[in-house]
UniProtKB/TrEMBL annotation:
HAMAP family referenced in this protein's UniProt entry, alphabetically: Cytosol_peptidase_M17
InterPro entries, sorted: Leucine_aapep/pepB (IPR011356), Macro_dom-like (IPR043472), Peptidase_M17_C (IPR000819), Peptidase_M17_leu_NH2_pept (IPR023042), Peptidase_M17_N (IPR008283)
One GO MF term: metalloaminopeptidase activity
Species in which this protein is naturally found: Candidatus Andersenbacteria bacterium RIFCSPHIGHO2_12_FULL_45_11
Protein's recorded name: Probable cytosol aminopeptidase
Cofactor(s) named in the record: Mn(2+)
Record-stated family: Belongs to the peptidase M17 family.
Binding site for Mn(2+) 1: 268, 345, 347
Residues forming the catalytic site: 275, 349
Keywords: Aminopeptidase, Cytoplasm, Hydrolase, Manganese, Metal-binding, Protease
Gene responsible for this protein: pepA
Function: Presumably involved in the processing and regular turnover of intracellular proteins. Catalyzes the removal of unsubstituted N-terminal amino acids from various peptides.
Length: 504
């Protein structure tokens, strides 16, 4: 249950441990405090060198006469910054202040609402910062019980602003439920997140709304659909593989059709091209694309978009065994293209080949896949940004705008035509690893593009985008304050913005 409430009452009417005040580079404290208190706070922030810098947070003992024992000042940056940048600074700074508060057991917090537009970012900061993954740790359970936030009150300047902010907070809380669901799934060890568990999550989501339907295909049913590439990857594991197909249809005739595909490798050992032991440690996260799609679908009944949305997941493990697919094998994807397997650890793109081919059959307006696809993308962009590859300028621009509005890091990447021959095979149509060593994120995307290009199924290309999310879905260290260590829920909020604006 969310601890957040919104009020137009004076902060002095609420019992607080900490009051957080957003400040821009003008260092204006606000008129809701007496001149004496304003002067005292200004003196403190001058002494510590705080100048309202973007994303900075400082917590200190409150001056006498304040209605809370501690004060936090959070930097919004220069007032001339664009709205998205300003809100991201607020999101980061408030989360940092709340994590500081956690260490000092400050559990009842008030936040001065700068304006109605800030309500969503503040809600996100609170719910990001107050996330705990406790299922397998007695210590984490104790810490959560002792340190989690009890109340968070947003103080609005008027009753009208409070009313508008409440409506925004309600929606933001629902979006954050989807983000938290994604984080919970990605944080789970593979022993608790088999393909069958992804199916259970999908079934639970489908029951929440008559607008959502679900089709689940087992190994036999997938074979009938000619998902031979997916099934080749799945062969090495004793876990039953599943293709999960969620479909949201609005009450009125849909304006457009959007297909979202999430990579669903619930554990990736590398298969016969076995990974080193230390490279397997975090391979529970290889289903983060699937978790992101499921997180979005849990929100769709609240969003009620005017478009049809398909969510497709190929869920399996990539394991070595006597029946595992081998380097040198040639397999046939659903669209009839043949794939030479050079490395069984490049399995995600092989499963996606079938799912992209399947998506094309619905004649959508766009296909977007999300996958923890390559380490090369992490080398290029680091841990906070995903890479965006696409075959149309219009779709790329929509996704970039959606990501910017949420503060999620995304970089548009090239798809050079001159690299395409590197994914061509002399014994099959394509090969699952390129002939050149560098540019691995690009060549992986070029491989995927082969399955949305003009094909025997549709005869025409479809607008398609690929998000390589290998870096930002899991934080080894909290480079962004509201992430913490572990799963970040990256991508869910970008998809929410994309879906909301896609029919326009």
């Amino acid at each position: 249950m969310s601890p957040i409430t919104v009020t137009s009452k004076e902060p002095s009417a609420t019992e607080l441990d900490l009051i957080i005040i957003p400040v821009d580079t003008s260092k204006n404290i606000g008129t809701q405090y007496s001149p004496e208190i304003q002067k005292h706070i200004s003196a403190v922030i001058d002494r510590i060198g705080f100048a309202g810098e973007w994303g900075r947070a400082e917590v200190f003992v409150a001056p006498q006469g304040m209605h809370a024992p501690f004060v936090g000042v959070v930097g919004m940056g220069d007032p001339s910054l664009d709205s998205a940048k300003k809100l991201e600074g607020l999101r980061r700074a408030v989360a940092a202040a709340l994590l500081d508060a956690r260490q000092h057991l400050l559990r009842n917090v008030g936040i001065m609402l700068p304006d109605t537009a800030s309500a969503s970012a503040l809600c996100e900061a609170v719910l990001f910062a107050d996330y705990w993954f406790t299922e397998h740790s007695a210590m984490q359970k104790r810490e959560q019980k002792a340190r989690s936030l009890t109340t968070v009150t947003l103080f609005a300047a008027s009753a009208g602003e409070a009313s508008r902010a409440k409506a925004i907070v309600v929606l933001a809380e629902k979006v954050m439920e989807g983000v938290t669901l994604t984080r919970e799934m990605v944080n789970q060890p593979a022993s608790h997140m088999a393909p069958s568990v992804l199916v259970q999550h999908a079934k639970k989501i489908a029951k929440t709304s008559p607008q959502i339907s679900l089709t689940v295909m087992n190994r036999v049913q997938a074979a009938k659909k000619k998902f031979s590439a997916f099934l080749a990857v799945a062969r090495g594991s004793k876990e039953e593989p599943y293709v999960i197909h969620l479909k949201y249809i609005p009450k009125k005739k849909p304006k457009k059709i959007l297909v979202l595909i999430g990579k669903g490798i619930t554990f990736d050992s590398g298969g016969l091209s076995l990974k080193p032991a230390n490279s397997m440690e975090d391979m529970k996260i290889d289903m983060a694309g699937a978790a992101t799609v499921l997180g979005l679908f849990s929100i769709l009944p609240t969003l009620e978009p005017d478009i049809a949305v398909h969510g497709i997941i190929a869920a399996c493990e990539n394991m070595p065994s006597g029946d595992a697919y081998r380097p040198g094998d040639v397999i046939t994807a659903m669209n009839g293209k043949t794939i030479e397997v050079l490395n069984t650890d490049a399995e995600g793109r092989v499963t996606l080949a079938d799912m992209l081919s399947y998506a094309v059959t619905f004649k959508p307006d766009a296909i977007v896949d999300l996958a923890t696809l390559t380490g090369a993308c992490v080398v290029a962009l680091g841990d906070t940004h995903a890479g965006l590859f696409g075959n149309t300028k219009e779709l790329n621009e929509k996704i970039m705008a959606a990501a910017k509005a949420t503060g999620e890091g995304l970089v548009e990447m090239p798809l050079p035509e001159e690299y395409r021959p590197t994914v061509q095979s002399i014994v099959a149509d394509v090969r699952n690893t390129a002939t050149m060593k560098m540019g691995g994120a690009i060549t992986a995307a070029l491989f995927l593009q082969e399955f949305v290009s003009p094909s025997s199924i549709s005869g025409q290309a479809v607008a398609w985008a690929h998000l390589d999310i290998a870096g930002p879905v899991y934080a080894e260290q909290p480079l962004i304050p509201y992430w913490q260590v572990g799963a970040t829920g990256y991508g869910v909020r970008t998809l929410v913005n994309l879906v909301e604006g896609f029919g326009k």
